[in-house]
Amino acid sequence: MLPVREEKKAVVEELTQKLKEARAVFVTDYKGIPVAQLTELRRRLRAAESSFRVSKNTLTRIAAHEAGVADLVPMLEGQVALTFSFGDPASAAKVLNEFTREFKMLEIKGGLLQGRPLTSDQVKALAELPPYEVMIARVVGGIKAPLYGLVGVLSGPIRNLVYVLKAIEEKKAAS
């Protein structure tokens, strides 16, 4: 019996470490999904700097308490799997949301984003956010637009002065 206990302890330690390191953790109900589709989901999540892990709820509860993320515990009912996002959390949420729409078998139960609990609707809203680069571009564009307007307003009087001086020059050259 001793080896089984050591295996469980190793699983709890691994889960605890992942829960501490992940920027976001999403809880999904994977009941009824064939192995081939789970493999496809794992492949897609790897591309989004995330991992998909199935483990016993009891071991996950222990790991959640040890990692200090007890808000995860109420979501651990039924056949659940955890998605750990180590990169952009929105990317992992997008993959899960797309997979849910595509196969209709995966159910997003909720998750944690930097230690704060999320409902399933909030995870879906996170999935609808534009990519990080697009959001940065929008912010920069929002800052840049008023500056261009200010430059246009400030250059108007100078431009008018130049037109007046040019007109005076042409008038003197003509006479």
From TrEMBL:
InterPro entries from the UniProt entry: Ribosomal_uL10, Ribosomal_uL10-like_sf, Ribosomal_uL10_bac, Ribosomal_uL10_bac_type
CDD domains in UniProt: Ribosomal_L10
Protein name (database record): Large ribosomal subunit protein uL10
Family: Belongs to the universal ribosomal protein uL10 family.
UniProt-listed Pfam families: Ribosomal_L10
Gene Ontology terms for molecular function: large ribosomal subunit rRNA binding
Gene name of the record: rplJ
Keywords: Ribonucleoprotein, Ribosomal protein, RNA-binding, rRNA-binding
Task performed by this protein: Forms part of the ribosomal stalk, playing a central role in the interaction of the ribosome with GTP-bound translation factors.
Any one GO cellular component localisation term in the record: ribonucleoprotein complex
Binding partners and assembly: Part of the ribosomal stalk of the 50S ribosomal subunit. The N-terminus interacts with L11 and the large rRNA to form the base of the stalk. The C-terminus forms an elongated spine to which L12 dimers bind in a sequential fashion forming a multimeric L10(L12)X complex.
Keyword Heme in record: no
Biological process (GO), any one: translation
Tree of life domain: Bacteria
